[in-house]
Specification:
Layout: E1 2-7, H1 12-23, E2 27-32, H2 36-46, E3 50-53, H3 62-65, E4 70-74, H4 85-91, E5 96-103, E6 113-120, H5 126-151, H6 176-179, H7 188-196, E7 204-208, E8 211-220, E9 235-239, E10 242-247, E11 250-259, E12 271-272, H8 273-282, E13 309-314, E14 317-322, H9 331-345, E15 351-356, E16 360-362, H10 367-372, H11 376-395, E17 401-406, E18 409-411, H12 413-419, E19 423-427, E20 431-433, H13 448-456, H14 458-465, E21 471-472, H15 473-478, E22 484-486, H16 490-506, H17 510-527, H18 530-546, H19 551-560
Parallel strand pairs: 1-2, 1-3, 3-4, 14-15, 15-17, 16-18, 17-19, 18-20, 19-22
Antiparallel strand pairs: 4-5, 5-6, 7-8, 8-11, 9-10, 10-11, 11-12, 13-14, 20-21
Helix pairs in contact: 1-5, 9-11, 11-12, 11-18, 12-13, 13-14
Domain Formyl transferase C-terminal: 174-259
Pfam families: ECH_1 (PF00378), Formyl_trans_C (PF02911)
Protein name: Hydrogenase maturation protein
């Protein structure tokens, strides 16, 4: 089937649908929803059999839906309508939710229902639900919709609230008044729910030291032996760039903030909370002064308190977890993670498993922190070198076999950081973006010119880097990019990785595998030292960062400021590619 995606952006849900439908043999092209005329032109060029809207922020023009079948992928149960669907589901503490495929009509979300898939609501943020349950549900609902359309015999269900299976309702746009935290009345659990319902957008508005901020990524502190002696709403600690608020019944961490009204040289995008508040905190009243709480990765057992990097050991296997918001890794985070890897390698372990975070494995350098730096070019250079140091630390592990367990998506340098390990495992929903060029023709580093051809060959490496398209985990396995795509659930995947790691650590052939790895590394080094790969890559990156072509800096600015799309790139919009001959 010829399917045109009309979408606000190429987010994780859209990418997953894109790769999965193409694998099923559908011809898919993408058009960003810029304005009516551009959308109408895309329809005329592609002549789709179906228009799919997986992520829209406005209605499809009547000039399109009147003449073409348009299916809206709505993140709600049957009958749910409105722009804040998942926000309300979290705030109302729903036990289950769903995704529904609705045919576009004049009234928002009021068209005939082609398919609906429900799932249990996990206690997590809106963005996490989107990346996991909602994306899985959308894929299932879209597949069912396509099968029903292709059958030619299915009649979609009209929206009729008298029907017992239509349990949703209209939900208006959630306002900041409805999201507002009442520090004198709200428990930690209620505050957490409010922050989760607004993450990743729009955030929860809060006043701190006389300035307005949006709060993101809340985590309840569970390692409190006694009540906090501070007024609810006051900041009592920082750790890894996050700030900790006192609450009525404990404390809650918030990792990121965004200014409500950026002025002058202030930035209007998300940044680590402590970095953004630095000046306000140092000049704030005593109640707002902070005490830094350093915490080594191995000090506190997993799950007892929040921290970005955590470590634990079982049966001579070390597990290193790193949970960086949205997968972005700034210079200091790379340095802390490199030190954690180095520390783990000094322990009595045979296998080191890099677990990443639940939501993301890694997306490489931290574009927001770079944009906010005094010299973005210099900070880009510092950040990429810190990433390279981390990759080198992983590659040079002669005493351990290093495994990667990808539980979340990976992009750009994060993909190649994973390839620095000996074996790479990924869950089946994981999406890979093993390329850099979409960020202003960035060349990339992280030893990719060594690691990628070594796994897939020179020709396949070029094919992966050129199209700028995402890959499913199954495609990544088929191309040799990773070792194994696993079909397990989230928890089942972790258990499988643990079993694999323990089996490898205890196997009779472990010493032989380790020896073979080290012989291969020495041979590779003799053919061409890693330092040469790094030098060659960084020569190209210097041109990106400090050269005359500003493409990288322009693309980065557009990305972090979330500026509206001006066009759809041709590698996504196949209907706009020039045809030769």
């Amino acid at each position: 089937m010829r399917i045109l995606f009309l979408t606000h952006g190429f987010n994780s849900l859209t990418q997953r649908l894109f790769v999965e439908l193409r694998q099923l043999g559908h011809q898919v092209s993408i058009e960003f929803d810029i304005n009516d005329a551009v959308a109408e032109q895309a329809v005329e060029l592609f002549k789709p059999e179906l228009i799919l809207a997986p992520f829209l922020k406005r209605a499809i023009p009547e000039t399109i839906w009147r003449h073409h079948r348009c299916i809206i992928v709505h993140p709600g149960i049957k009958g749910d309508r409105g722009p804040s669907s998942v926000d309300w589901a979290i705030m109302e503490n729903r036990s289950s939710w769903g995704v529904t495929c609705i045919e576009a009509v004049a009234e928002m979300d009021a068209g005939d229902i082609w398919a609906s898939v429900e799932f249990p609501m996990r206690a997590t943020s809106k963005s996490s639900l989107y990346r996991n349950e909602i994306t899985d549900g959308a894929l299932a609902a879209v597949k069912l919709t396509l099968a029903r359309i292709e059958s030619g015999t299915y009649t979609p269900q009209p929206l009729n609230y008298a029907q017992p299976d239509i349990k949703g309702q209209w939900h208006c746009l959630m306002t900041q008044d409805e999201r507002r935290i009442d520090w004198q009345r709200d428990s930690s659990e209620i505050i957490l729910r409010k922050i989760r319902a607004a993450d990743s957008q729009p955030g929860v508005k809060e006043s701190i030291a006389g300035k307005g901020y949006y709060l993101y990524n809340g985590i309840v502190e569970t390692q409190l032996n006694q009540p906090v002696e501070a007024d609810p709403g006051s900041i009592i600690a920082t750790r890894d760039g996050a700030i900790c608020f006192a609450t009525l019944d404990g404390a809650i961490w918030v990792t990121h903030l965004r200014l409500v009204e950026p002025k002058g040289e202030a930035f209007g995008f998300k940044r680590p909370a402590a970095a953004l508040l630095h000046d306000q905190l140092t000049s704030a009243p005593e109640a707002l002064r902070v005490a830094e709480l350093p915490l080594a990765p191995e000090v506190v057992p997993l799950g007892e308190t929040w921290q970005e990097i955590r470590y634990r050991e079982e049966a001579q296997v070390g597990y290193l977890y790193f949970d960086f918001y949205n997968g972005a890794m700034d210079t200091q985070q790379c340095q802390r993670l490199q030190q954690a890897v180095a520390n783990a390698k000094q322990r009595n372990i045979n296998v080191l498993v890099l677990m990443g975070g639940e939501e993301y494995w890694s997306n490489g350098i931290h574009l927001n922190q770079i944009e906010a730096a005094e010299s973005p070019a210099q900070e880009s250079w510092r950040n990429i070198n810190a990433m390279n140091d981390l990759c080198l630390e992983i590659i040079n592990s002669p005493e351990q076999m290093v495994l990667v367990a990808m539980r979340g998506n990976a992009g750009a340098g994060g993909v190649f950081m994973a390839l620095a390990a000996d074996k790479v495992f990924a869950r089946h929903p994981v999406i890979f973006n093993p390329h850099y060029k979409s960020m202003g023709n960035l060349y990339g580093s992280e030893y990719w010119t060594y690691l990628l051809p070594k796994r897939v060959g020179v020709e396949a490496a070029a094919e992966l880097m050129h199209p700028r398209l995402p890959l499913s985990a199954r495609e990544a396995e088929a191309k040799g990019l990773i070792d194994l795509c696993c079909d397990e659930t989230r928890d089942g995947f972790v258990e499988k990785i643990k079993a694999e790691a323990v089996q490898l650590s205890c196997s009779a052939g472990f010493a032989d595998q380790l020896a073979l790895k080290n012989v291969q590394r020495k041979q590779d080094e003799m053919l061409k030292p890693l330092a040469h790969y790094r030098c060659e890559e960084l020569e190209q990156m210097k041109l990106n960062f400090f050269g005359f072509d500003p493409s990288y800096h322009v693309a980065r600015y557009h990305f972090v400021e979330k500026l509206p799309k001006a066009r759809t790139p041709s590698y996504l919009a196949s209907h706009r590619r020039l045809k030769c001959g």
